[in-house]
Every structure is written in structure tokens, then in C-alpha cells.
Structure of Tripartite motif-containing protein 47:
Amino acid sequence: QAQQAKFLSDAENELEELAVTIAQAKKMVELIAWVGWGEEKEPRTLSFGVFSCFTWSWVPGALGCESCRVKEERRAKLAQCKQNLENVPSTDTIYFLQEFQALKVAMEENLSPAPSFQNELNFTKCTQAVGAVKDVLSAACKNQRDHLQGKGIDGLSYQEMEEGLCSPSPSARRAGRAGGIASCFPPHPHVSFLPHTVAFIIDLDSDTADKFIQLFGTKGAKRVLCPISYPESPTRFINCEQVLGVNLMNRGNYYWEVELIDGWVSIGVIAEDFDPRESYNRGRLGRNEKSCCLQWNGQNYVAWFGGFESVIQQPFFQTIGVFLEYSEKALTFYGVKDSKMTCLQQLKVSHFAKGQFDPFQNKINHQFASLFLCKLKPAFFLESVDAHLQIGPLKKDCVSVLKRR
């Protein structure tokens, strides 16, 4: 009994070590399997033919899958012996001695096979594989970064990529005219090969979120009743339940989508230098000349800019698409449903006589262009206590529609 505590502690430590070892081995298997096999379960060819000299049959040996299985069995046996010993009644001395001896024997077993020449070769191959995985991941990350920064692939411009990758055949052109939706689209929903349109990835900035806004990762936001103890930040809203994206927009075109889950929600853009300490009346999206938005108030959509509003007679759309044309000084809101886009409102200076009779358009004509003298950020206002939004995945067909504009 004096040795019971020590043996239980040693058993617990070994169980934890085995669990970590097993988890690491499984992750390595998954990582190399991911590189070796594509989504269609076909072998991928790695750069420079790193794996062409040997097949994937060595992977289980290289990663010690057999050893991993033995470790799992040992861990299960130790756990069972430990549990049996802990369950022995304090008055049953004979049963205690039996279970204690069983745990002691299990602890003293050495099930790890001695290193062999073949295992050393497998370890060398494993090292080569890990190096190849690292190279592939580095190249993939670089390509992704180049796409997001607006660069082409292998030095090609987006226009060249479009001509080379997306040139439809005559039959495809006829099908496109008949069907309406462009058939050519890049495989990644957030990376557009359009020459001027960027499918925008938005991450919410927790340093701007009002204390009554709860964030879910970097994509979701919900207004709550109890304040959240966010750290102090000079960019945090203090009088309006608003949050911004970390992303800056100052050139080109941008498109993103937002899911309206519940409540009154406003979606728009705001100048980077806007003061988040503004009062409630002046600080809300669209109630000043530094921001504009589309609001859902539970009954209607309303466009806001500079304190002026324009009520929109359209049914509710759960998904709202936002298309910012920075160089054109235009912002368009779309209702998106089943990959079909309905224009709800476009904010853009108009040189026609409409603005003379429409106070909202007149405000746009006089001051909207000055908003584009600043760098802009995506902005969100959760007006009601149950307001909830999610920055949604982009609909591929919608970006294709914008491409044809």
C-alpha cells in the first residue's frame, strides 16, 4: 500500500506520454497522406519528384504505425490495470495484491522494439518526406499570398490568366449565353482570377468591437446584454454597438457577403480615420459623412449616408453581397439567393437631375466622393439586442456575374 501512490503516479505519467506520442504519430500520418493524396483520392505529384523514387508503402513503417498500434495496446492495458487497482475495496487485501502485481508487471514491460537497420532507413525516408511536405506547404502559402495581393501565377497578369485558363470554346460561349452564369471560375471561393474584381476575405477586428458585441472567431458577431471585458483600445467603439474588419480598401474592387442571422443589422464601409468615440447619434454607420451602410430594420432595407436615408422596397434576403468599386467611387448592395443577385441599392454620384428631387441622392452627389479620399474598412452595426451576423462564404456564381458586368 505504501507503494500504491507512486505506482499510480508513474502509470498516469506514462499514460500521458503515450497519448502524446500516439497523437503526434497520427498527425504526421495525416499530414503526409494529405500531401500524397488529392481530393479525388488520386496520388499527387510533389515538386521535383521527391517521392518518385519510392512508393507510399513505406509510410506506415517510416512513421512507426506498427509501433503506434503497440503503444495504443500498451496504453489501454495500463489504463485498465490502473482502473482495476483503484476500484479494489480497501478491505480486500488479496484482491489488492493481485491487481497491484498486475499493474507492476504491466509497468515493467518493455514493448518498444529495438532499432533495426530497416527502421533507420525508414526514418531517413520519413525525414525526406517531411522536408518535401514543408516545401509543398511553403509553395502553396506563397501562391495563396500572391493571389490575395493581386499577383498572377508564374508572372502572368490576370488578363493573361483569363485568356489562357478561361477562354471558352464556341460551344461554351453559346452555352454561356443561354445559361447566363459564366462557367469559368477559379477553384478557391475566396480567390478570383478576375482582372479587376477581388473576392474579399474579411476578418473582424476584436480591437474595434463594442463591449456589447460578442465575436465568434473572426467571422461571427452577436449583440449581447452583458458587457464583455475587452482590453482597452484606442480603436474600440464605446457608444455604438459596432465592429470593423481588419482589412483596408484603397484601390481596385472588392466583393464580400454577409449572412443576416437575426435582428437589426447594418452593413457598410467606414473611413479608417473615423473616431470611434463619437456620440451615438453621429457615430452610427451612415449617420455621418465618413461612413455609409445598408440597414435591415426588421421590415425594410434602408440605405444610409450622411444622416440621410433611402427606403428600399425589396423582400428580405438573408445573404447580402457588398461590391465596392473604389476607383469608380461606387458601393452596391445585392440581395443574394440561390446564386441570383438582386441589386438593392447603388451609392454613386449621379449627374442626372434625379438628385434635385431626391434628398438622399443629392447628399450622395455632393459628399459621397469625398469618402474615397480615405482608406476604407468593412463595418457592421448590430442595432437590436438580438442582432447576429456571420461573414459568409462567397457564392462562386455571384462573383462570376460581377465579372460579366
